[in-house]
Amino acid sequence: MVSRLIAFAKDEGIVEQLLRKENNRKETALHEAVRLGDDELVTELLRADGALACFPEEGTSPLYLAISLGRVKTAETLLTSDEDISCGGPDGQNALHAAVLRGPKLTRMVLEWNTNKNVTTKRDISGRTPLHFAASLAKGRPLGQRRAVFPQVLEANLAAIYQPDNDGLYPVHVAATVGAKHAIELILKNSGGSSAGLRDAKGRTFLHVAVCNGQVGIIGYACGDRSLAWIMNMQDNDGNTALHLAVEAGSLRMFSAMVGNRHVNINLANAERETPLDIARCKISPGLFYDLKSQEEMIFRTLFRIGAAWGTYRRGH
Question: Between the CA of residue 9 and those of 5, 19, 53, 66, what are the distances in Å?
């Protein structure tokens, strides 16, 4: 039936007008064929109009749709067409944003197709590059899959390590948020370690971000790596070190990892002139305690016994 309709359109000289006609979602008949997963129909439409995959000029492209649906064969058909097809998606994303979330095979296909299209550097409306997306693949994915995707995207454009999103988050911060240790290791290795000191809009390093998100594994990794000693006492816009935040969170595991590193300064004061000891004291709830009943109490007693200093303000504060 599609072939007959195309034949009628040819007789009238309106093939392109018919096939490129958009519905209310700015989609053509090719989008419907992709959504159905009918590769024969996709081929028939492209044979009739080789440039059909270039439409719409703005919005979700057939390629993005095919990749987001995980249709490998359909995506391959589109990528091997002779035309310079569109790879755009919703909210400023492109085909590579979708591919990294669908696995290494589709990611590799898009990267091999990407020659002068710069899909690795394009940001969505939130300022996130495909590397931000790849760095977030720590949870809900098989270990082998996420370890295969991230190196592909990273190697395709190392400069993306230094591209922040609209919140000032670099890929290393995103990786720390979800506990993607493998991604952090690759980022640091390929940046000569300099990316460890990158700060987000709040002035926080990836270590701060790891503490804020309770990623004990990342904190333990950072504290156990001697090459990262220089970031242990970096302070955010509020003057807080990672130790301040760990004490504020009341997590004994995070606190232990931090205070066990001899490079961590336990007496630095933040913008409120509070040291970790001050914060620990304020975290203890009023009431009667028997021995070491709470994590907050244990954190406070530990700091007190190892000689941590109070802040410089009136004691009745």
Answer: 6, 9, 19, 26
The pair of structure tokens assigned to 227 is 């090459």
What is the rounded CA–CA span in Å between residue 117 and residue 123?
13
The candidate with the shortest Cα–Cα distance to 35, out of 5, 74, 8, is 74
DSSP letter (8 states) at residue 53? G
Which amino acid appears at position 110 of this protein? Answer: V
pLDDT in tens, 246-301: 999 999 999 999 999 999 999 999 999 999 999 999 988 777 666 556 899 899 99
Strand partners, 88: 94
Of residues 310, 299, 213, the one with CA closest to residue 260: 299
How many CA within 13 A on the CB side of residue 266? 22
Distances (CA, A) of 145 to 57, 70, 140, 161: 32, 14, 11, 21
**∠ CA(29), CA(52), CA(108), 5° rounding?**
100
The residues, any chain, with a CB within 8 Å of residue 34's CB and separated by 6 or more, are 42, 62, 65, 66, 69, 71, 74, 78
Query: Other C-beta atoms within 10 Å of 146: how many?
Result: 23
Half-sphere exposure of 196 (CA within 13 A, CB side): 24
pTM of the model: 0.90
* CA end-to-end span of the chain: 81
Helix, strand or coil, per DSSP, at residue 24: coil
Q: Using CA atoms, how far apart are residues 227 and 251, in angstroms rounded to an integer?
A: 25
**Burial state string for 275-299 with b = 16 or more CB within 10 A and e = fewer than 16:** bbbbbbbebeeeeeeeeeeeebbbb
Ranking 136-140, 253-257, 276-280, 305-309 by mean pLDDT, the lowest is 136-140
The DSSP bridge partners found for residue 94 are 88
